[in-house]
Write a structure and sequence with these properties.
Elements lengths: L3 E4 L2 H13 L6 H20 L15 E6 L4 E6 L6 H9 L6 H6 L5 H8 L13 E9 L7 E5 L4 E6 L7 E8 L9 H11 L7 E3 L23 H12 L5 E9 L5 E8 L14 E6 L2 E4 L14 E6 L8 H4 L3 H23 L4 H15 L2 H4 L4 H7 L3 E2 L9 H6 L8 E5 L3 H5 L5 H5 L5 E3 L4 H8 L1 E2 L2 E5 L16 H4 L6 H15 L5 E4 L8 E4 L7 H9 L12 E4 L4 H10 L4 H4 L1 H14 L7 H16 L1
Parallel strand pairs: 2-8, 11-13, 15-16, 15-18, 19-21
Antiparallel strand pairs: 1-6, 2-3, 3-7, 4-5, 4-7, 5-6, 9-10, 10-13, 11-12, 14-16, 17-18, 20-21
Helix pairs in contact: 1-5, 9-12, 18-20, 18-22, 22-23
Subunit structure: Homodimer.
Family: Belongs to the heat shock protein 90 family.
GO molecular function: ATP binding; ATP hydrolysis activity; ATP-dependent protein folding chaperone; unfolded protein binding
Length: 626
């Protein structure tokens, strides 16, 4: 086949520019990334050979070799792993075939310094070679295939692919043509230092030089070593390798379980939220090994979706080496592994959450992964109590600090028998919502829930410690029995008389008809004139809006809302006085519709008839000016 010239995917071109010029403060980590990829290639062939031993041929000992040539100014890295064919080269080196890539790249600002932290969540291993190389050649032959291939690029926007018999018998050879300014990476002592620093944990021998047989690295699986033998730096570098991550681990969990089943776990909680955390597949990033042999990084059921932020390895002694991915799906050993992992992870998270001295540190974790962790509240009933202890909230009284449910319950007012909450899209919006006014006036704390998942877990959990969860946007918010902190002047506010208010309520019901379920006097409003609430037993307002936005709820299925009016508001008092006069139904018709539209606007809803609203508003203002 003749040589083909292809263009990089647009996302790759943009990432390449940032990676090559500003991603790393220490350029030496390019070698870490390439060694990590080579190690993965060896792992994948070792697994494939379990069912097809012919893939290994006579070359059964995996290794990674690094050769520097000062005269040619080339640095070559060779592995005898699974290798790549033409399609693999195009897919793996020319595109980033991952869900969410385009959306991710759109978030890049163009400011390299700002973009570095974003790219650090993405994983760009191979492309880091262009930090030190002006040209990169990749020669590869896939295990079990006869044809070898060459991939070449200068990282400027395109690459070439062609058949090449100079490819290794199996595996991949990467030849980097080193820039003049980066020739330090052709010195043996420099390479040895980089390998020991970043790749000592790699379980494949790393050989330095064309002929040597001595391994530079320890070449045994890090998780098999005793914790006392492992430094924090070694844990960090293993996290970078296994998670293809660039931040530092927020939490490291390393343990060995013995008993009914035997396994070792080395798991990490990242500091930064991975870009694909909310990918619809909800896939985890934990690799499954059996007796130090890599099996898969896609073992469904090994880690529950609500812990998908975990990175690391689990090594089982009880699964068979030739286990297939299909066999794993209903394997009882995998079920026990999952139970042990969940117990250990939630236990360690609860230790962190319960330590007052680590409150700020835990808050950083919660801001990154709390929304995902809450999915477990309606998916994992067995661990619900442990998960409830981990929950943290911002509230109307917390001044931005995070509050646990135990703290909230300890601060409940006399006469308060429910945990009150409000859901919405933005904290600033729900904080100012008219529905919380009466609660704020009494000093009753309200949880501010702004994650989409909140609507679902609250409905599933319903209560904790004997206290039910209750939305402040539902009817029946009986604030009168709660002994709060009302100011004396609040009690003296003029309110519409019962008779006038009854007349106004009846007029509003008659005018608005089927547009509302009911019109009622409000206990929750102190500053606003009106608000909409869901009747007891009806769907919460924010949940209904979410379902409609995603096409999960038809117009006919939507619940009508209750319009609540504030008898202490000057506008309502004035309208109530007019409601008893002759001809009120006609003269106050526009006012009735304006009140409903005002309540809709406060809820963040789109007005069903903006033109009528504008006409009524103009007429109302004109009448007032007259």
């Amino acid at each position: 086949m003749s040589e083909e010239r292809l263009s990089f995917q647009a996302e790759v071109s943009r990432l390449l520019d940032i990676v090559a010029h500003s991603l790393y403060s220490e350029k030496e980590v390019f070698l870490r990334e390439l060694i990590s990829n080579a190690s993965d290639a060896c792992d994948r062939l070792r697994y494939a050979a379990l069912t097809d031993g012919s893939l290994l041929g006579d070359d059964r000992d995996f290794k990674i070799r690094i050769v520097a040539d000062k005269d040619a100014k080339t640095l070559t890295l060779i592995d005898n792993g699974i290798g790549m064919n033409r399609q693999d080269l195009v897919d793996n080196l020319g595109t980033i075939a991952r869900s969410g890539t385009s959306a991710f790249v759109k978030n890049l600002s163009g400011d390299s310094k700002k973009d570095v932290s974003l790219i650090g969540q993405f994983g760009v291993g191979f492309y880091s070679a262009f930090m030190v190389a002006e040209k990169v050649e990749v020669f590869s032959r896939k295990a079990g295939e006869a044809t070898g291939w060459r991939w070449v690029s200068d990282g400027q926007g395109s690459f070439t692919v062609a058949e090449d018999e100079a490819a290794p018998a199996r595996g991949t050879r990467i030849v980097m043509h080193i820039r003049e300014a980066e020739t330090e990476f052709l010195e043996e002592h420099r390479l040895r230092h980089v390998i020991k620093t970043y790749s000592d944990h790699i379980a494949v021998p790393i050989l330095l030089g064309a002929e040597t047989t001595d391994s530079v690295n320890a070449a045994n699986a890090l998780w098999t070593r005793s914790k006392s033998e492992i430094t924090e730096e070694q844990y960090k570098e293993f996290y970078h390798h296994v998670g293809h991550a660039f931040d530092e681990p927020w939490l490291t969990l390393h343990w060995r379980a013995e008993g009914v089943i035997e396994y070792t776990g080395l798991l990490f909680v990242p500091q930064q939220r991975p870009f694909d955390l909310f990918d619809p597949r909800r896939a985890h990033h934990v690799k499954l090994y059996v007796r130090r042999v890599f099996i898969t990084d896609e073992a469904e059921g090994l880690v529950p979706p609500y812990l998908r932020f975990l990175k690391g390895v689990v090594d089982s002694e009880d699964l068979p080496l030739n286990v297939s991915r299909e066999m794993l799906q209903n394997n009882p050993v995998l079920t026990k592994l999952k139970a042990g992992i969940v117990k250990r992870v939630l236990g360690d998270l609860n230790k962190k959450a319960a330590d007052p001295e680590q409150a700020a540190d835990y808050a950083r974790f919660w801001d990154a992964f709390g929304a995902v962790l809450k999915e477990g509240l309606y998916e994992d009933y067995a661990h619900r109590d442990d998960l409830l202890k981990l929950l943290r909230f911002r509230t109307t009284e917390s001044k931005g600090e995070l509050v646990s449910l135990a703290t909230y319950i300890s601060r409940m007012k006399e006469g308060q028998d429910a945990i009150y909450y409000i859901t919405g899209d933005e904290k600033s919006a729900v904080e100012k919502s008219p529905q919380v006014e009466g609660f704020r006036a009494k000093g009753v704390e309200v949880l501010l829930l702004t994650d989409p998942v909140d609507e679902f877990w609250v409905g599933s959990v319903r209560e904790t410690d004997g206290k039910p969860f209750k939305s402040v946007t539902r009817g029946g918010a009986d604030l009168s029995k709660i002994k709060g902190e009302e100011k004396p002047e609040d009690e003296k506010k003029d309110k519409a008389s019962d008779g006038d208010l009854s007349a106004l309520t009846a007029l509003l019901k008659l005018t608005l008809g089927e547009e509302v379920k009911d019109v009622r006097r409000s206990e929750r409003l102190t500053d606003s004139a009106v608000c909409l609430v869901a009747d007891d037993g009806d769907m919460d307002i924010h949940l209904q809006r979410l379902l409609k936005q995603h096409g999960q709820l038809g117009a006919d299925a939507a619940s009508k809302r209750v319009l609540e009016i504030n008898p202490g508001h000057p506008l309502i008092r004035r309208l109530a006085e007019k409601a008893t006069q002759d001809g009120a139904a006609s003269s106050l018709e526009d006012a009735a519709w304006l009140l409903l539209d005002q309540a809709r606007i406060l809820e963040g809803e789109t007005l069903p008839d903006p033109l009528s609203f504008a006409r009524r508003m103009a007429a109302f203002v004109e009448k007032g000016l007259g």
